[in-house]
Design brief:
By secondary structure, the protein is mainly alpha-helical. It has one domain. The protein contains 13 helices and 4 strands. The protein starts with a strand and ends with a strand.
């Protein structure tokens, strides 16, 4: 990772006005990214995993909580961002091999950072979890970038539809070897079988061991989420459409996708762990509507007095996500005696037990306060970085 005053693929720069649908920077996308990564930190860092308010937890299996929106929002944003980063190169024509090499490099770095988090601090390669959030972001970024660079919008729409239908067919009509008829149950679907066969149980999510929510097969529909962002960005960049019309159609498309997702839910349930096709449409529709609202507020109307906290998160999103996962692991290596317990705990746990638990009578409030405090600490750090024009890119 390196420090720069320019953001490359992580932060969104538009092309010159002659090439873009609006001048300057798509501020709404940075704000959307900031809101999303802030929410991701909130749900990933409770003070106590045993005491969490229901909206801050993932659905147990089928269904969708507010927390289940966060990861698809991020992949949707990746799709939008890559169009703004790569559209100028695509418009110029000519060989795209050098651009794809840079794309693959960045995707590989994201994958490696995810593996590093999984390995740290013990570096047990024999049992490291290979799939993960950053790993999926890296793969979706590479595949979605290649599709955008080498195909047109009509082909992209066809690929999106094909991916979602194919995934539905594979999951509901193709039986997993040794498990009998296809079943959309934990560890019993075709994707779980593929993960166990290719990656082995030693390299899967430790909480399940027999399947992984970021597994191999479900990466296919996750690419569909990225493609929704790619297609949305190309509509936003249209020069021949007025902003009000863009926003109106985005809301229409978003609502239509939500309805289609709810209809599809009737036979292929909305499920984040499986990243079902209905889940792609449902969450994608909400993401499109959210971006449309932010685009109208921030970029069209110019109402930006409230955006600074989200903006500073948005321009260093990958950095804060990575470090917010790494630093707690480092703190837990520092052992401290916990008063009244007769045992030593990591510094992160010690701070939570001594500062938050005694302060809040309700355990869920203490847990939430710990997560919010972490967000505020990072807000201060990122605010300073923003004003010093320090933007980290991979």
């Amino acid at each position: 990772m390196q420090s720069t005053t320019q953001a490359a693929l992580e932060t969104t720069h538009t092309q010159p006005l002659a090439e873009a649908s609006q001048p300057g920077r798509l501020v709404s996308l940075d704000v959307f990214r900031g809101i999303t990564v802030m929410a991701m930190i909130l749900v990933n860092n409770p003070g106590d995993w045993g005491h969490i308010y229901a909206p801050l937890e993932h659905a147990a299996w089928n269904g969708c909580t507010p927390t289940d929106l966060i990861f698809p929002f991020f992949l949707f944003i990746v799709g939008v961002s890559l169009v703004y980063a790569l559209d100028g190169v695509k418009r110029q024509g000519g060989p795209l091999s050098a651009t794809m090499l840079r794309v693959v490099r960045r995707g590989a770095v994201l994958f490696a950072l995810g593996l590093f988090l999984a390995l740290f601090p013990k570096f047990e390669f024999a049992t490291v979890r290979i799939p993960g959030v950053l790993q999926r972001i890296g793969l979706v970024f590479i595949i979605s970038s290649a599709i955008f660079l080498y195909t047109g919008r009509r082909t992209q729409l066809g690929l999106l539809a094909g991916i979602l239908v194919l995934y539905n067919v594979l999951q509901q009509l193709v039986p997993a070897p040794g498990l009998g008829a296809a079943a959309l149950l934990p560890g019993q679907d075709l994707g779980a079988w593929l993960d166990r066969t290719v990656l082995t149980e030693a390299h899967l999510w430790k909480s399940s061991k027999t399947w992984d929510p970021e597994g191999l097969l479900s990466t296919l529909p996750a690419v569909g989420t990225g493609l929704l962002g790619v297609i949305t960005a190309q509509w936003l960049r249209r020069r021949d459409v007025q902003p009000a019309e863009k926003v109106a159609w985005l809301f229409v498309d978003g609502a239509l996708l939500v309805v289609l997702g709810l209809i599809w839910n009737g036979w292929f349930p909305i499920n984040k762990s499986l990243w079902t096709s209905s889940y792609v449409l449902y969450t994608g529709g909400i993401a499109i509507s959210a971006l449309a609202a932010l685009y109208w507020i921030c970029d069209v109307q110019g109402w930006r007095g409230w955006i600074k906290p989200f903006l500073v998160y948005g321009v260093n999103a990958i950095t804060v996500f990575f470090l917010s996962g790494l630093i707690p692991r480092i703190l837990n290596l520092i052992k401290q005696p916990l008063p009244g317990s007769g045992k030593e705990v990591g510094l992160k746990e010690w701070l939570y037990q001594t500062l938050f638990v005694p302060t809040f009578a309700v355990p869920e409030n203490a847990s939430l306060a710990g997560a919010v405090t972490l967000i505020l600490i990072w807000l201060g750090i990122l605010w300073w970085m923003y004003h010093k024009r320090v933007i980290i890119k991979v």
